[in-house]
Amino acid sequence: MAWRCPHRQSLPLPVVSHPSLEYSSLILVRCYTEHEMRPPCEIVIKYVLPAFRCSVARSLVQEYGFTQVKTATALGTTQAAVSYYLGERRGSRIRGFEENELVRAAAFDVAKGLATGQLKSVDATAKFCQLCSKLRSTDAFCQFHKSVEAVDAECNFCMMAGC
Fold first, then answer.
1. Inter-helix orientation angle 79-86/68-75, to 10°
2. From 24-28, 39-43, 110-114, 159-163, the region with the lowest mean pLDDT
3. Which long-range contacts (CB under 8 A, 24 or more apart) does 4-7 make?
4. 3-state class of 12 per DSSP?
5. For the chain, how big is the Rg over CA atoms in Å?
6. CA-CA distance, 24 to 26, in Å (whole number)?
7. How far is CA 31 from the centre of its chain?
8. What are the distances in angstroms from CA 146 to CA 32, 37, 143, 153?
9. In Å, how far are 61, 68, 88 from 83, measured between CA atoms?
10. Is 14 helix (H, G, I), strand (E, B) or coil?
């Protein structure tokens, strides 16, 4: 049985009988193995998560008067990481995500929730996961993925449901 990956190449479908392996995971494994591309989740962790944390840290310190240590505790990171975020020592690609409206809105909500005690860190993580889903459904994210990876122009893996 042949399987057609998003990159339009027919590949043999591996026989896998593990019940927890979903269809989208199977596609991801094949695309990653055959094309050595980073999956969208890796792009999110490398570029979007630091931008999100930077925005939240900046809000907590500038708008809510948190110290770097208190901010680090709220974010579940170190004071050194918060210092790095606040020092704006970021690449242009990460700064681009800091300016994204979806990222800014989510960061504002999380900072406000953490500052007022209405959010716990697990809730902040859930908000980030929601942000990730929203971002990945946009063409802008897909274009960014293509700009940092050698991805086929017709690939739409970022926008696949369940990925």
1. 110
2. 24-28
3. 5/30, 5/31, 5/34, 5/35, 6/31, 6/152, 6/154, 6/155, 6/156, 6/157, 6/160, 7/31, 7/34, 7/35, 7/152, 7/154, 7/155
4. strand
5. 18
6. 5
7. 19
8. 14, 10, 5, 7
9. 11, 7, 9
10. coil
User: 3-26, pLDDT tens digit by residue?
Assistant: 444 444 444 444 444 444 444 444
Whether the CA torsion 80, 86, 90, 94 is positive or negative: it is positive
DSSP-assigned letter for residue 151: -
Q: Among residues 136, 125, 129, which one has the least CA distance to residue 40?
A: 136
Give the separation between CA 142 and CA 53, rounded to whole angstroms: 21
DSSP, residue by residue, 63-123 = TT---HHHHHHHHTS-HHHHHHHHTT---HHHHHHHT-HHHHHHHHHHHHHHHHTS--HHH
Mean pLDDT, residues 61-79 taken together: 93
Token pair, residue 116, equals 């007022």
Instruction: Give the CA distances from residue 102 to residues 5, 75, 121, 151, in Å, rounded to whole numbers and listed in that order.
Output: 30, 19, 19, 24
Single-letter amino acid, residue 159: M
Return phi, psi of residue 79, to 5°: -60, -35
